[in-house]
Amino acid sequence: MTQDPARTQRSEGIPLGRIGGVPVTLAWSWFIIAAAIVFLFGPRVAGAVPGLGTAAAYAVALGYALLLLFSVLVHELAHALTARAWNWPTPRIVLTLWGGHTQFGDVRATPGKSLVVALAGPAANFLLALGGLGLLVFLEPGTVAWLLADIFVWANFLVAVFNVLPGLPLDGGRIVETIVWKATGSQDRGTLAAGWAGRVIAAALAAAIILPPFLQGRTPDFGLLLITALVSGFLWMGAGASISNARMRMRLPSVSAAALMEPAVQVPAPTPVAGLREAAAGGPETPIVLTAPTGQPEAVVDPGALVAVPEHLAAHTPASAVARALAPGAYIPDAASGQELIAYLSKLEGSEYAVINREGAVVGLLRQDTVVAAITGRTRNRRP
Fold it and tell me: Which terminal Cβ of the chain has fewer Cβ within 10 Å, N or C?
């Protein structure tokens, strides 16, 4: 279950270095929105600035895409640096197709701090918009510089306003989360409510854009329909992810190694197959865990392989011949539960883990898919 952070960062996109100690990654998906901006705004720039030329117009449109990228970066840095003020670990910032997101490590948040961190991003965009307005005063209308500054102002203003709408995954969703969190004492219930508020916003946005033209007997603009579908779809999926994550975290307290493990039998590794069959007398479905002379779990017997050994060879066939090795250190205490259990498993390789009691004896076998099923609420695939 462990992952290489450097490999994960490279797979997400292009590393841009560190700003304020926070790694920044440009996601591959960003190039899609950049291409769309150049394609859509290139002709409009050519019409707004006569005599500019087609190539130069598309270059200006690319400049707009880069200014938008800068605005998103400032937005995410505002989140990250505000979080750093409370010593929240910030693994990285990822600039994506829809804007960006800032990832945080395990934090001890409070409703107030969570809200301040969330609203720091829109506040930064408001400040950028005000700075752009101040710059417009010194620029000549109709020039390329004035056009870029004007677009920069409107983009930051709209990003700020859009992000304070009260529903996740938008920053304003933290407002709803904070209110419910304060009222119930549960951040997860707050996240759940904010996720449903985000879905309401997604549906309302789609209805507000699509329904009026139909009610007036007009055909909606295809480009506007496409953008609305993309934005509403993004909000709906982001809200759904927030709802799923909240439900998952709410299940964590009831997830424990002792409750999820399959009771197992501990047998010394040098035992021959005949001895394993005696140990499995309680039932073929009972897992058998082989242990080293030190008592450390090292392998799990394969029931199919155990049955396949001919009777006349059972006394001389070593247990290792019918077992699959556990990953190094793949054992956990039976008392592990909730976030502690997930933290244990995140550091271990493999998909099977021996469960040991306080005395160090093996009492069970825990499978990764069982834990995932318990957390997600899905039914685990039955094993043969």
Answer: C
Q: Which of 40, 104, 93 is nearest to 69 (CA)?
A: 93
Least confident piece of the model among 79-83, 216-220, 222-226, 365-369:
222-226
In sequence order, the β-bridge partners of residue 25 are 15, 94
State residue 351's pLDDT score.
93
Q: What is each CA distance from 8 to 14, 28, 30, 98, 264, in whole angstroms? A: 11, 13, 17, 20, 35
Check 76, 177, 298, 352 and give the catalytic one: 76
pLDDT at 6 over 70: no
CB atoms within 10 A of CB 56: 15
Report the sign of the C-alpha dihedral through residues 203, 209, 215, 217, in that order: negative
Distance CA 213, CA 219 (A): 6
User: Which amino acid is present at 172?
Assistant: G
Please tell me the distance from the alpha carbon of residue 39 to that of residue 46, in angstroms, as a whole number.
Answer: 12
Span 272-293, average pLDDT? 86
Question: How far is Cα 231 from Cα 369, in angstroms, rounded to an integer?
Answer: 34
Residue of 303, 301, 305 lying closest to 354 (CA atoms): 301
* pLDDT at residue 254 greater than cutoff 90: no
Q: CA 275 to CA 272: how far, in whole Å?
A: 5
For 39-43, 176-180, 262-266, 378-382, which range has the lowest pLDDT when averaged over its residues? 378-382
**Which element (helix H / strand E) includes 368?**
helix 368-376
Say how far apart CA 94 and CA 76 lie, in whole Å.
9
Active site residue 177: no
Residues 339/252, Cβ–Cβ less than 8 Å: yes
* pLDDT given at position 279: 84
Mode of pairing for the β-strands spanning 331-333 and 352-356 = parallel
The CA-atom distances, in angstroms, between 106 and each of 24, 87, 88, 103 are 19, 11, 8, 10
DSSP letter for each residue of 111-161: HHHHHHHHHHHHHHHHHHHHHHHHHHTTS-TTSHHHHHHHHHHHHHHHHHH
